[in-house]
Specification:
By secondary structure, the protein is mainly α. The chain has helices at 3-8, 14-38, 46-70, 75-105, 115-141, 146-169, 171-175, 178-197. The chain crosses the membrane at residues 18-39, 45-67, 79-105, 117-141, 148-167, 179-200.
Length: 204
Amino acid sequence: MSKAMIYNNRPTQWDAKLFLIAGVFMLVNTACLWIRAYSDYQLSILWAAVPAITALSASIFALLKLYKRVAPQAPKLALSGAGFALIAGAALVLAAVWIFITSVFGSGISDSPQLGLSLLTGVFMVAMVIAFLCYGIACLLVKNMSRLGYLLFTPVASWTVMLLVGLLKGFEVGLSLDFYTNAIIGNAFLAIGILLKAPLRSRI
């Protein structure tokens, strides 16, 4: 395969850059969560919420940018993934606005989120699981992108565990797993970004 053909199969590098950004901010979020839990320093929950929202927003845009890579060979899966990514994005925006209004005009957010915020979080997680699942399966069907597909299943597994624990033991218990799952997701985002930046033939 010529260099020109390899370049043409990489329409932009924004998907890679956005996944790298998502990975960095997700790890920052994890660090903030651990500082709040195990340090004497009284760190506001906003310090954890802001990098988490930034990371998740970047990952949604990254999925939408990834559409061009997988749509030619798996159009239905790519379209479904993009659709659920948009649903997740809408839920995330509403949750971010809720957090902002509560923090500025209300009593602030607590470790026990309100029912409305919990429902938005649930919708977001379900939509993200389906979006990443669709893209992961699509990548398995695209030549030279199977490794990317397996990496995309990592956030799926992490969020699915949180959802299942939430259903069995309560939503707050499920969300509390973010101390561990967010670190796994953050590293997966970084690995996805690095893989997307690599030349196509190195992914074989």
